[in-house]
Amino acid sequence: MAQINSDETHKSPEFQLAAVIGEYGGEPSIHETSPEKDDTIESTHIVANSINFLTYDLATKALVPVVKPSWVHNSLAKRKLANPRQHSPDPRLFLSDVVVACGDIPEGDKDAIIGGVLAKGGLYSPRLTGMVTHLVDLTVESDKARLVQTKKLRVKIVLPHWFDDCLKLGQRIDERPYTLPDPEVLRAGPEVPIRSNENKGLAGASTPEPSIMLTPASISHPTDKSSVFAGKSVMLSPDLGIGSHLLESIEAVLNRGGATVTSKVDDADWLVCRFREGFVYRTASRLDKVVGNLAWLYHLITFNTWTRPLNRLLHYPVSRTPIPGFEGLKISLSNYVGEARIYLENLITAAGAECTKTLKQENTHLITAHGTSEKCSAAREWGLQVVNHLWLEDSYAAWKLRPVSDPRYNHFPPRTNLGDVAGQKMLDHDVLEQNFFSPEDMEPPSPPCAMRVKDQNTASMQPPAEKPPKESDKVCETAHGTPQPKGKTSRQPSDHKKAQTPVRSRLIPDDKENETPSSTSSRKSKDAAAARLHEIAPDIALYEKEMKRVGGVIYGGRRKSDEDRVPENPKKRRSAEPQEESDSEQATDAKRQKKSRPPISMHLLITGYQKWVGKGNEKKEDADKRHLRDLGIMVVQDARRCTHLAAPSILRTTKFVNALAYAPVIMSTDFVANCLKKDELLNPKDFPLVDKAAESKFHFSLAKSSERAKKNKNRLLRGFRIYCVEDIRGGFDAFKSIVEANGGECMLFRGRLGLANNSRREESDDDDDMQDYEGGRHEAFLLSSAERKHARLWPRFCQVAGDIKRTPRIVRVDWLLDMAMSQELRSADEYELNEGMIEDADE
Known about the structure:
InterPro entries: BRCT_dom (IPR001357), BRCT_dom_sf (IPR036420), CellCycle_DNARepair_Reg (IPR053036)
GO biological process, one term: double-strand break repair
Pfam families: BRCT, PTCB-BRCT, RTT107_BRCT_5
CATH superfamily of the largest domain: BRCT domain
Number of domains: 6
Protein name: BRCT domain-containing protein
GO cellular component, one term: Cul8-RING ubiquitin ligase complex
């Protein structure tokens, strides 16, 4: 039996579809937007153009497939039932409207595209048929592309990049920038502004608390039977906080649409409330009633079309408490316009973070629609997290902080403004149930047997105390039933912040439980708190330091096994009921004391160690580092802390070049392998790093470089001001670290700002023991490459360098690397770039 959902039952397409189903043996039935639940369960398939009908959630729970009309036609063409997944109207299967054919593309790319399309609801056709919507090709010269152009088929010829970007984002984006024969992604340069379109899908869904509602007089045909409110009972929750005049207006609109307004949640079909809390909200949610907020109700009034509150993040009530991990976050927006910007601003507030109009260094995140704005450049320069809006939407839908390291949140397709696809994320009913109306906390905790009435009112506001049950409590459990599980707390409705009564302390005798603590004990508590704060001050300082690392504390923090981690305070908290340690705990402590680690004899920086390189070797790397630490070797990542450097050969990695400036003992990675193999600390001098081929290639001696580094004392480039183009190969951060490791200054140059005129060497000229290169005091250097996009910045650099009376020198990065590796200054003449080289490079 196939059920056909339609907003208007008198449209001919629905009747035609029903006739086709009946002709081929099906039992069709046409329904309005709100069919009866019994009919939904009896149906084997539901045909609908969207998931916006009242019984969609019931159908998914009953495992009844919801398909688009194309499923019927495709089944008839195949003469068998087609896969319902490929014809689902669920927007999460964002490629369900795509039927793809492949042209002359590599076989590996072809398999990847087909697999991705099928996984996201699309179909694949090996031939060009009338069902094909997209042809994937690299040029319009292939046979299939020529066939499309010759016969003028309604097929879009797109580059494979479009599918790649869609699958990376998990969203369908506009294919126009990828459409052949003249794709914008290959034609437009980075300086061409990216256009932004008005996101019409966010109309009426950009704020959880709208301030304007259509008046009842503006609703056309209020008694029309097709009204979305017909026959519904609606409850308006008191927490909406709306005035009596507006409340009367809303009720009048609902009554004209055929709905009734009730004050009892049991009688209501729909509940309109503001917050995800309170008895009414939890009851309606547990009874599977439709729960939405005022913005959702206004949307129904305005468009007279049913939409599920879960389809839009801000059509569902918000929470008073922030998402765990969002407290204290300061987030700014860039490149979002119109409704998309308003929507994200309100979503940031609903998540519990602060949305700032301007970007400052105190911000923690920047959410941007593409990565080419000045805000993005400044955020990366300041070390802020730069993500797209999918990070915010996914965190809100999952109600937990999503890691910014997910590649999906750092992907910005070229020539696409992601504001066009904002607002497509849906809420998950299971997540809401788990966090806000879980059936586990329905029963309130049982009161003590001899509790007074006054204490009962107080205890209902507080969570159960986390302590072992007394004998009297055990007797009470038998009398009153099973108590609430430990750790579960019931949420209480409140229009203000919750005021919890403190749990009775174990230090207060039972007969003194109602007495107010004296001022002396209060002062002792304050002194104890101050002392505790002083004890954990090192932990707080370390936490603030780690927060500046990429990924934050969670994804860039230290392990408990790290030696330089601030140790925990060994003192235990006082307890009125101390418990004796078990024999197993004492045995464990004895083992730990017995197996103490030796003192650190070297801080080793390792680079290019092949046994740790590659995906899947993380566990081996961690195990080897722990093993090395047991031998007295601390593996470090910061070149400033290393005393020894291990590498398989002379490398131009950031670690290797930076470490040379600190004159460590340099050895081969064979030292690491042999220490691990023999389980003992060997002599580093037995494993010298010898690489004559690299020394000849880079024109330096490793031994002499180490001697010069000891003499230079990280001041080789003191007085040098070196600028770098933004998108240079290797990355600005790598070259900045090399310059700063050798005492110089390195800054980004984007062609907009002037150059600073202060110098570190000018501030201190007492380095007589240093080798001096006078050009460093009178020249400004720009690290660039022989690419035309970089050459466009050269005239501007020469101009601003002249403004501060410095000679501009535009050089290849080899100039910096050769100096850092040889630890001696070199003239920039042989590394300098000019316009003639640019022409040669382009040819």
